[in-house]
Amino acid sequence: MTSSGPDPTIAFNSPPFSSLSSTLALGLIILEQDGRIVHWNDWVAKRSGIVADVALGKSLFDLWPETTQARIRFAIDQAITQGQPSLLSSSLNKYLLPLYEDPFRSDPVQIRQTVTISSFYMTARMCVLQIADVSAAFARESALRVQAQLLNESLERQAQIMKQLENHNDTLDSQVRKRTAQLNELAKHLQDVSEEEKTALARELHDDLGSILTAARIDVFSSAKLLAGSHPDIHAKLQRALRYLEEGIQTKRRIVEGMRPTILTQFGLAEALRYTAEEMAEVSGWTLRLTVEEDLPLSEELSLTLFRVAQEALNNAAKYSEAQCVEIILEADEHTVRLVIRDDGKGMELDAVHKPRSHGLAGMRSRVEARGGYFEIQGAPGRGVEISVSLALSQAE
Amino acid sequence: MIVGYQLSDLQRETLAEVFNIAMGRAAKAMSNIVNEEVLLSIPQIRMVPRSEASSLLGGPEQRVYSITQTLDGEFHADAILILPQARSMDLVRLMLGSPQQLELVTELEREALTEIGNIILNACIGTVTNLLEGQFSISLPVLQSGLCGDIIESHAARQSEEDVVLLLQIDFTVEKHSINGHLAFVQTVSSFQALLARIDRFIEKAAQG
Questions:
Q1: pLDDT on residue B1
Q2: Is the ipTM reported for this complex over the cut 0.90?
Q3: Where does B111-199 show beta strands of DSSP type E?
């Protein structure tokens, strides 16, 4: 098929084709069937460092031996023998043709290239290589990948830090819980010790001091009686001593009662609350509203805790509230006992709960919380105060 | 159904054999490029009217990449490789060994997919043109992305004549990742009948040889 028709070497290397080809912004190489170069445009000459005069007429595979075994050789053969075009991408084929940005530098930088290989008929099947410089796209994508990597790393670091923070928080949280439990345990223990000491002291006051005072009173009484006629002046002094002794006995009784409320141990919480509240209502002029369940199955400690809270709350109301009405509710369901003491007095700023004066409030709270209970105080100026306490009926020890 | 374009079992088996040989060559070429074992096989060949093709390719609404090369000569045909969009870029990235995956599909990744399609298409087109023993001009590969139905529809061979599609299922595996693609030859009934005649002649020759 290579007989008549124009000589390709002349046709492709004279105007107008050669002028057109030299203006192209891509590389153009045309091969004959045997791989001989019949066109080599300026773009290729500039980037290969080989001028057209040197390239023309030579086999591409002789000129560039590195292409002999490569995929590009196979693609050229496919185009020439079967007319099948190929696209050789820059990313799947790292270094296709030895083309450089500046081939005369000592360390020339090879161009990233996409090569398309196709064929057309002239006198015989001719093969055309079009070479596009995709270095810029390559650089752009590399930069994009670096950015993406940095972004990912920074996101990962952020996630790690968040995780560490969370872990740290969890640790702190569990420490706080542990310490709180320890403190509650300690507070409960201190209360128990304190109550025990009070009980022991009360017993001693009652048994020892009480009997001494009573014995002394009997003796003084009988002595006074004996001396009533003969020594009226001594009798008068003994009468005074008797009154002092009587006051001493009353004082002792009050102290003992305060330390160990016998009304509580003898008649139970409901009765103790009623008695105490009525006594204070009388002194302070309150109207009293009592809703108190009788015979609740309360342990001694639980009763004492609730009683002490009630005492403290009523004391506070008497001291500060100027209330007209005080309400006490004691109720229980299957699991929980609940005590509410509410007044309609002048109320308080809740911030005051945290002020030094409020040792009483803090004491109530710590008593309740030491037994695993729930303590709440509500109030605002002019709207009274409500203290409510919930405790589990069966205390987990 | 259009009469006269069904494949006989013998024709189908013959086509399967020649296409699988071609796929073996294409797989080897790709293995050489990526230094990984690439497997390509054609488990199924069917002949369908163009209107039915997209439903066989996972439905007209399926998002796909297509790589198309057009044959012109004794007859006109479009050879379209259709790959599901969801997984084909994973495969490309595996072949490129990209260290950092990006959300978007880059220009160079699309180009690489075009080359992969080109290798598979050339192998199949070569098989067909060898069978036909004719002279064809074959276009460079063109990548498109879109809905399967739109892409099949845009490749009507001749307006006047009913088109048929020779549909090859292609199993494509790199490392442990594999995707199912399809290669569709969209052509007119008459050109398909020419192909069938060539297949018969090829079978006869093989029987004699």
A1: 43
A2: no
A3: 136-138, 142-147, 163-174, 177-188
